[in-house]
Amino acid sequence: MKIRKSFVSNSSSSSFTISDKEYFQPVIDLLRIHDLDYLMIDGKLHTSFIYKRGEEQTPEYYDIEAIAEDEIEGDYDKPWNPECYNKKLGALRNAYVYWRKDED
After folding, report:
1. How far is CA 85 from CA 53, 70, 73, in A?
2. Do the domain assignments include residue 35?
3. Is 2 within a domain?
């Protein structure tokens, strides 16, 4: 039996930071359609974690990744190293949103 103790590429997710105000509303609309959460922090839009299946990216993952300024990689709903990030319940109150502690 194999036991994995680190990153497994087929079960990852990411959250994204969008700084271009032109994309705020389209991204919020896309997140709401898929019941994903977000926060506005210091003039930037931060998304909750968006699940990616293996090498196949879901449409919302791909669309947001394409315009993101920054990406936090993780597993399902949290970063790989949560101690390096701030955490708060998102605007819709259905998921946590993380952002880098060094951005405070």
Report:
1. 24, 13, 12
2. yes
3. no
